Amino acid sequence: MALRNADVAELIERLGDLYELDGAVVYRVLAYRRAARRIAEATEPVERLSVEGRLTDLPDVGATIAAKVEELRTTGTLASLERLQAKYPPGLVDVMRLPGVGAKTARRLFDLAGISSVEELREAAESGRIRELPRLSERTEQKLLAAIAAGAEPREREVLLDRAVERAAGLLAHLRAHPACVAADEAGSLRRRRETVGDLDLIAASDEPAALLAAFAELGRADDADVTAQGDSKATIVGHDGIQVDLRVVPPAAYGNLLQHFTGSKEHNVALREVAAARGLRVSEWGVEEVESGEVFRSEDEAAVYERLGYAWIPPELRENRGELEAARDGRLPRLVEVADLRGDLHAHSTASDGKATVAQMAAAARERGYGYLAITDHSAGVGMGIGLDAGQIREHAANIREHAAGLADEGFALLAGVEVDILADATLDLPDDVLAGLDWVVASVHGARGQTREQITARLVAAARHPHVDVIGHPTGRMLGRRDAYDVDLEAVIAACAEHGTFLEINSNPNRLDLKPTHARMALDAGVRLLINTDAHRTTTLRLIEYGVAQARRAWATADDILNTRTWAELSGLRKPGRPPGPRLVG
DNA sequence: GCCGTTTTCGGCCCGACTGTTTTCAGTCG
Asked: Can you tell me the distance from the alpha carbon of A71 to that of A510, in angstroms, rounded to the nearest whole number?
């Protein structure tokens, strides 16, 4: 049975949790968590790394953890995990995960009151038994009950990126309008453009932090939010929707330091500060202090902070401690793809299937964005629910698109007659070859029969990648963030097939999808597969969501050259499989 | 448990806030 990176990472993570409950020194626990993260992010299967004895090539994975993965691979179990799981009930880890509760508190609840699950904790708190315990009060009891109640509600703990961006923009507008506010910006995972955001981190510069923090808290209360912390430089509100927003404030002179500090990630900052500490520098949100002299460097400008530490400015999307610090030190940072580099969109729908705008409206919106081409790729019938088009309808639709295209070609715009053809359960495509051969652009995607086995799903995607008329695989993993997981697929096999047959892979900009995720996108690029960034737009306004796909590509270290639709249609078309039609003949 | 431009042993980022306390531990990011 295949050993998946995500599963191995989860087990190593759990082992870390249990060691923490067991009272291990924090650095040991930290080591397990770091290793788990490296394994989850590895761009090669750890099973292969284990077989070839290369596990310790991964940073933060040493001989001990490599041996544990080896044990897992050869025996299917982990003796140390079994031992600890026998010692601590599984529910105790859930108790440890409650906000405000950590390993120490969870362990004390277990040792002193025999509490081994969230449910038992709730019962004990309700019957007033928690306040009897040393160092725990009635107030704590109430907070625990509130935390349990919040956790029991089926609300999203992670917010999708587009929603986080909008929410932050609203709050920032309020903050910037405040007289005590000199500057305010987004920070944290939001600024790094992670696909989901756990809580919103905002930062501000002010000479009167108390006034600004009070205004922020007031803003929260007006919106029915709880103010869960409010100090001299920081406040936290938790909205009725469960979204937590942190605001940190420093004097304007240290705003660049704060921006650096609070953009993170934690791993990036820890690595940066470790290197700095070895050079006698202490880095915090208040400045860079030379410990020996006591001299403190502050700047309003984030780039100056990086420069003081010996680095080029690092794009926030790269700040995950995946080699960006070394690259910034040595001047090897890539020039990442930008929204302005994109010249067209090759996955969009119209009213012919489930889109909300006509072909003409979609084409006009693409031209307004300054694009040189747009592919109309309506669904084939296999998508179901009467949405898609059969072979005859597709031919008719293509003829209709080409009528529009003829006029636009005179103005140098390529409107492509395409399709998003379903990859059916039996691994065939939903339209005959002769129909596909006659279309300018073919996206092939899986929509139905998502519950098939890994072997079946992989076989479908590999067959589509091999197909001579398929240009690109659309949303390759089929995930819908917060709603459903990716289908079970051996993406490495799909990537290998794409590399061999010259099929492209799509980064889908829809904030619900955003597949490929960065590790997979990087895996594809390393295998020599070219990527496209498409919106899969169903209306004119969603063409702008390209920014989220670009952010996702940037997180994979992608340059403009790595992304096919930074090229003109003529250039791009020449890079397709042999025999694919050239599309409309442009004039001028 | 991991790691090495001081090191194969002895370090391991840094600060804010809360709660129950009179100086700090626990949690969080």
From this structure: 40
Whether the pLDDT of residue A154 is over 70: the answer is no
Over range A253-282, report the average pLDDT. Answer: 93
Q: Apex CA A538: angle with CA A547 and CA A563, to 5°? A: 40
The DSSP result for A238-261, as a single string, is E-TTS-EEEEEEE-GGGHHHHHHH
- 3-state SS string over A407-449? HHHCCCCEEEEEEEEEECCCCCECCCHHHHHCCCEEEEECCCC
A398-413 burial, b at 16+ Cβ within 10 Å, e below that, comes to: beebbebbeebbeeeb
Domain covering A159-250 assigned CATH 3.40.50.720 in the classification = no
Which nt has its C1' nearest the CA of A270? B13
* A110, two tokens: 């277990």
Contact A75, A124 (CB under 8 A): no
Q: Which nucleotides of B are covered by protein (CB under 7 A)?
A: 1-3, 5-7, 11-21, 25-29
Cα A582 to Cα A570: distance, rounded to the nearest angstrom: 8
pLDDT grade, residue A153 (50/70/90)? low
Does the C-beta of A442 come within 7 A of strand B? no
User: What is the CATH code of the structural domain delimited by A254-329?
Assistant: 3.30.210.10
Strands A287-290 and A281-284: antiparallel
Question: Which nucleotide is closest to the Cα of A96 by its C1'?
Answer: B27
- For A304, which DSSP code? H
**Domain spans of chain A, in order of start:** 159-250, 254-329, 339-573
Tell me, in Å, how far CA of A337 is from C1' of B24?
49
- The one-letter code for the residue type at A417 is A
Token pair 């070609």 is found at A409
Task: Determine if strand B comes within 7 Å of the CB of A186.
Answer: no
| Fold exhibited by the domain A339-573 | TIM Barrel (3.20.20)
Bond preceding residue A564 cis, omega within 30 of 0 = no
Over 70: is that where the pLDDT of A1 sits?
A: no
The answer to whether A524 touches A531, Cβ cutoff 8 Å, is: yes
Q: Is residue A417 a contact partner of residue A402, using CB atoms and an 8 Å limit? A: yes
> Where residue A157 falls among pLDDT bands split at 50, 70, 90?
low
Cβ of A94: how many Cβ atoms within 10 Å?
A: 18
The answer to whether the beta carbons of residues A359 and A580 sit under 8 Å apart is no
Nucleotide in closest CA–C1' contact with A276? B13
What is the C-alpha separation between A572 and A576, in angstroms, rounded? 7
